[in-house]
Amino acid sequence: MNISKIRQQFYRQSRLWITTLLIIGVTLMSCSKSAQSDQTVKISPELEKQILQVIRQHPEVILESVQAYQQQQESQLQQARQTLLDQMKTNPQAVIGASPVRGSEAKNIILVEFSDFQCPFCSRAHETIQQFMKANQDQVTLVYKHFPLTQIHPQALSAAKASWAAQQQGKFWEYQNALFTKQNQLGEELYQAIAKQLNLDLEKFNRDRQSPEAEAEIQKDIQLGDSLGISGTPFFIMNGESFSGAVELSKIEAVLATVKASKGKKN
C-alpha cells in the first residue's frame, strides 16, 4: 500500500471531519451556522478500509493532519483579525463602512458586533449591550454588523433587510431593538407593524428592503465575518479583543478595561 498516497487522500477528507468534531464541541452560548450542516462525508468502502488501516498502523497521521489544518486556519484567522485591528487604529471608517453606529463620536474604542435577529443568544446579548452602552457611550463606539445564519434561521435575512431599510430612514437602532424585543414574532406582519410604529415611509421601506443594495450591504458584513473565521453569533471585537456568546456585563466591562489599559501603555 502507498502510505504517502493514502496520507494525502486522508488529509483532503480531514477538513470535513474536523468540522464535524467542531460542531459537536460548539459552545452552548451562541448560535452556529454549522449546527445544521447537511454535508456528508462520502468515502468509498475501499478507501475507508485503507484509511482505517493507516490510522491503526500510523495514528500520528490524523494528529499531523489536524495540526496542519489548525495551523493553516489559525494563520488565516490571525491575518484577517490583524488587518481589522490595523484598520481600527488607522482608519476606523474603513471597518465601519455604511454600518449603523452609535455611542462615542471619537471612535477611539470601537466595539463591532456581529449578530443575527433570530438567534436567541443574540437577543440575550442585546440586553447586555444596551446596559453596557448606556454606561459607556461616551467612550465606546458600537458598530452593528449583520451575520444572519440562514441555514438555521429562516427569518434572519428578512429581518436584517428590514432593519437595513429602517436605517435608510434613520431608525435602525429603534427597529433593531423592536426586532429583538419581539424575536418570537419575526415575520412579515411584524416587519410592517414596526415600520408603522416608527412612522416610516412604508413605500420606501418596502422598496429598500427588497432592493439589491440591501442584499449587497448585508453580504459585505457576512463576507467580513467569514474572513474573521466567525461561525456563530453573537460575536464581538473591541479594538482587537474578541469574545462571543451571550456574555455577562462583567465580561464586557473586563474587556473594556483591558483595551483601555493597552491604549494607556501605548500613549
Verbal overview:
The structure is a single chain. The strands form 2 sheets. This protein has a 5-stranded mixed β-sheet with strand order 2-4-3-6-7. Strands 1-5 form a two-stranded antiparallel sheet. The model is unreliable at 18-27 (pLDDT under 50). α5 (120-136) links the parallel β3 (109-115) and β4 (140-146). The protein has helices at 3-24, 45-57, 60-90, 92-96, 120-136, 156-167, 172-181, 188-197, 202-209, 212-227, 249-266; strands at 31-32, 101-103, 109-115, 140-146, 232-233, 235-238, 241-244. It has 267 residues and is α+β, with helices and mostly antiparallel strands. The radius of gyration is 22 Å and the shape is globular. The chain has 11 helices and 7 strands.
Strands ordered across the widest β-sheet: 2-4-3-6-7
**What string, H for helix and E for strand, traces the elements in order?**
HEHHHEEHEHHHHHEEEH
Structural class: alpha+beta
What would you report as the Rg, rounded to the nearest angstrom?
22 Å
Main traits of this protein?
5-stranded mixed sheet; 61% helix; 7 strands; 267 residues
